[in-house]
Amino acid sequence: ADGNESLSDLCDFMTEEARQQTVVYMKRSSGIVDVEWTCEKAMALMFRRARLAGTLKRTLQMELFAPNAGEDHATVSIRFGEKGSISTISLVREDGEWKLGSAPSPAEED
Known about the structure:
The chain is α+β, with helices and mostly antiparallel strands.
C-alpha cells in the first residue's frame, strides 16, 4: 500500500470527531490556513513533523495496554516509545468496529 492509502486506513480507524480533532489541531499548530484540510493531510504533516524532530521511530513504536471495554465504549492506555508518558484514549464501537473516539496527542519530544 502506498503512503496515502496507509493514511486513509489510519483515518478510517478514527471516528468523525477524532478526524476533526486531528484536522483542527494540525491546522492551528501549523498556522497553514490556505489548505483544504483532510484527516490524511493532517496525519501526513504530523508524521513529517515527527520525522523531522527525530521522534518518528518512537511514535511508530507505540504500546497499547490496560484495555477496559464495555459494550460500545472502551479505553486503552498508550505509550509512545519505551520511556514515553502514558495517555488514555477512548475507543467507540461504530458499525461493529472499534475506532478511536478522540484523537491521540502527538508524542512528546524528549
